[in-house]
């Protein structure tokens, strides 16, 4: 019986400045931190993965990596049990544990696909599409630097500043031909959001626009606002308010589809969401769900019950960005454009150019993910690294 044993894992925590200030209801940031994973097999093949770059996840990745040494990457159940146990009940590490597992898991999938000389999409299921539409994030406000919450709200008190966001969106169209946008609301002023979304619709009459306050509006306020926004033909309201109950009540009051990436994030959330008819779209994050197997399972269950799965992303390197492209290519259930933040990173860690052209990205050729690590690029953004070997 063929085995592909893990003989080493290298972890590198990186910090990459953004080319813009991301302002939203949860944070105002100018950089992203990620953990890059290199997994080496006994056959000499290596695979790439990545996950969150917090110190907690980086430390947990070192612990999990030691437990993976000598394990067979073809035995997915053994790999999960070595880290998180058999079920969610056994997982003592919460979201950090799932995200850590997902980063290692991605590297295992990549190494397996490279060993079999298949693309990752083919290994997941099929390589159905070569071109995947992607979404451009729009910050709640255009700022020159990261600011305090008080400074952000002072900016939002001047409604004339909404035009800066519209101009930013139009610049993304000119540069990369984006057809899909996600507005990250600060959830401070419903009048700001109302005015800005109307202006965006007027400036981009054919664009798909998502509205995401990250559940920071109360249910009553969110419902009132979304009722007003119903006429704009937005793609969906993403987490306009909190909890499944709040989403269900809002969904019953509006015509626009409702999506979540905050309240349906593991298997046991699917049944209550389906029964309560709380959402239309499950915007799944590969790292919050805990890897490719979990994401694929979610997509198929959601689709079977009439929900649409879509791929959530933040500011990820080319490794995770391309992984999401492979998922979208492989799974027929994915119809919406992929979230994507790679185009706002000032640097990347892979050698290949991954441009957005006419609002879409091309699936790389070659086995596995189809991208390779650029050592010089990686070194320039490295915060710390660790190598785990038998």
Arithmetic mean of pLDDT: 96
Q: Sketch the topology as an H/E string, one letter per element.
A: EEEHHHHEHHEHEHEHEHEHHEHEEHE
Strand content: 15-25%
* Cα Rg: 21 Å
CATH topology of the largest domain: TIM Barrel
The biggest beta sheet reads:
9 strands, mixed
Helix content bin: 25-40%
What is the domain total for the residues? 2
CATH architecture of the largest domain: Alpha-Beta Barrel
Total E-strand runs: 13
Distance between the termini: 22 Å
Poorly predicted runs are none
Shape: globular
Please state the structural category: alpha/beta
CATH superfamily assignment of the largest domain? Enolase-like C-terminal domain
Which CATH top level class of the largest domain fits? Alpha Beta
Number of DSSP helical runs: 14
3D architecture notes:
By secondary structure, the chain is of the alpha/beta class. The protein has two domains: 128 residues, Enolase-like, domain 1 (2-Layer Sandwich); 240 residues, Alpha-Beta Barrel (TIM Barrel), CATH 3.20.20.120. Helix content is 39%, strand content 22%. It is built from 14 helices and 13 strands. The strands form two sheets. Strands 4, 5, 6, 7, 8, 9, 10, 11 and 12 form a nine-stranded mixed beta sheet that branches. It has a four-stranded antiparallel beta sheet with strand order 3-2-1-13. Helix 7 runs parallel beside helix 8 and helix 8 runs parallel beside helix 9. The longest helix has 22 residues. 49% of the residues are buried. The model has no long low-confidence stretch (mean pLDDT 96).
